[in-house]
Amino acid sequence: MTREISRRAMMAGAALGGAAAATGRAIAAPVHLGLDDIEKEGEVAALYHCDFGDVARFDQTLNNISNHYSAYNGDPFALQIALVAHGGGIKFFLDNLEGTQWDGETLPPELFERASSLSKNGLKVHLCEITFKRNGLDPSRARTADFISFVPSGVATVAALQTKGFAYVKVG
Hints:
By secondary structure, the protein is of the alpha/beta class. It has helices at residues 3-22, 55-70, 109-119, 129-134, 154-163; strands at residues 31-32, 45-50, 80-85, 124-128, 148-151, 167-169. Helices cover 37% and strands 15% of the residues. The chain has a 6-stranded parallel beta sheet with strand order 1-5-4-3-2-6, with helices on both faces. Helix 2 (55-70) runs parallel beside helix 3 (109-119). Mean pLDDT is 87; it is low at 1-25.
């Protein structure tokens, strides 16, 4: 079985998972991945590095990811994109900001909706466990979505993916 076929099976599973969610069935909490668990599965792969909490910059990151997919005619098998979030970047994937260093801020809900929509093209988001620990945040504070996972370290994941052939992209 080739990795491409494996990825196709994964995308089909994700579609079924989305259908299950639409029928009211719960989605499991984000999984915890090791650095070796994320593999380059296609000819073209990119990682977007999000270590910032600026809303306008995150909005632009989502625009760039969308544009990146559109260059491949929306074919989720032609391009693999991972977004690695640590530091301020995790706030875009929290269920709410109460009791965090961002308490009192309001995030436009459409930002997460757009990230979720991009996941239909294959976007995977990897959240840094170290950031959660250093900020005293329980991992259960992360939004529950099948495209979100935890990694041991955001910066280590950025480096590991680059050694696996992912192109590095950072907005701003």
